[in-house]
Write a structure and sequence with these properties.
alpha+beta; Beta Polymerase, domain 2; two-stranded antiparallel sheet
Length: about 170
């Protein structure tokens, strides 16, 4: 299994478990901008404690590292983050439980479906929200990769971006 297949497997598991989600971060920036290498995918989820066991059941065996169900339920309760790792490919998906803020709620409500691979679609953050999030992460001391991602999105998707929304 390569990285793309792993990423699709995680998104498929979320959909099968009826967990609303939104691809964000560098993978979302790549969908709107310029490709770059990454070993992880950030996915914002509206996961409930009742859905944890069903989701984790998709990732059993030695090929996956997943935290325990009790740990994930605690993460859900405090709106934190946990990850699923595909060990053979060293790929990781960070599942970020959606925060309970006005911005996070509006950002999540604006997500939309986009082609993710040749054979699958995914729910993805808007390019405007990707830009705002990347700039916020950079302002909090994040790496220059965030700025490069923003430049790539602006370069490739310039005519499709609602600049007023970003302001």
């Amino acid at each position: 299994m390569n990285q793309e297949v792993f990423f699709v497997a995680v998104l498929t598991a979320l959909e099968q478990c009826r967990v609303p989600y939104m691809v964000a971060g560098s993978v979302a920036a790549t969908l709107y901008g310029e490709p770059r290498m990454t070993n992880d995918m950030d996915v914002v989820v509206e996961l409930t404690t009742d859905q944890v066991d069903a989701l984790l059941a998709h990732f059993t065996g030695d090929d996956y590292y997943v935290p325990s169900a009790p740990f994930v339920r605690e993460v859900v309760a405090r709106t934190g983050i946990f990850n699923i790792i595909h060990v053979p490919s060293a790929s990781k998906v960070d599942l970020i439980v959606r925060r309970r803020t006005d911005f996070a709620e509006r950002e999540f409500s604006r997500r939309h479906r986009l082609p993710f691979t040749d054979a699958s679609d995914a729910s993805v953050a808007t390019p405007e929200d990707v830009i705002v999030s990347k700039l916020l992460f950079r302002a909090r001391g994040g790496s220059d990769k965030h700025v490069s991602d923003v430049v790539g999105v602006l370069r490739v998707s310039a005519g499709q971006i609602d600049e007023e929304h970003i302001e």
